[in-house]
Every structure is written in C-alpha cells, then in structure tokens.
Amino acid sequence: QVQLVESGGGLVQAGGSLRLSCVASGRTFSNYVMGWFRQAPGKEREFVSAISWGGTRTYYADSVKGRFTISRDNAKNTVYLQMDSLKPEDTAVYYCAGAASVFATMLFTTTGEYGYWGQGTQVTVSS
What we know:
- With about 130 residues, this protein is mainly beta.
- It contains no helices and eleven strands.
- The N and C termini lie far apart (about 40 Å).
- The model has no long low-confidence stretch (mean pLDDT about 95).
C-alpha cells in the first residue's frame, strides 16, 4: 500500500503561483509513476501532469503546458507541482496519484491507470 498526502493548496489571485506537494509513504516510492489530476465542481477528474519514476520524462495537459512544472525528489518520497501564471479556470481540487511501473520512463495519463490517490487539496484562483 502507498499512502499519499497532498498539501500546498490555497487561495491565490490570477497570475499568482502555488506549489503543491505530495508525500508518499508505504512501498518504494521511487518505483512509482506519479501524477497530478484535478476536479472542478460538476466536472470529471482530469489529467494535469505526470512524471516517470526515474524523473526523466514528464507530460502535461495542454491547458497547463508552459505554466505548470512537475518534479520529484525520491529521497524525500515527494512529488511537486509548481503552478505559475494561475488562471481562474485552474480552480479545482488537485489530487496526487501513484502507479507502480516496471519501466523507468513509463508515464500514465488516465485515472484508471493509477491505483493510489491522495485526499486532494483545494486550489482557488480569484479573478
């Protein structure tokens, strides 16, 4: 089992920045693909970004590309999401997710591929 705990959400004005953190405990974090998803009220949970367990590959949704940066520190069992130039449409609950992977460069982008989820952290961007 892997337990994931997110932090770093909050209220920010449009154009501002936030950094989300997700700390993992349990099994070997370094063998897990890590992803960030978000869910706005009345909408389905959507993919935001993912990082391979080797940290060499990243992938972003088009809506956040160039504004968000995912990274990980395997020594600290932590994955980060740096969010810059935030927009009101980024308002959502952000979830950290993990999935075991055999290959160091593998990435997953759908909710069904992830077996472990955090409880979520609210991000609200005011206009």
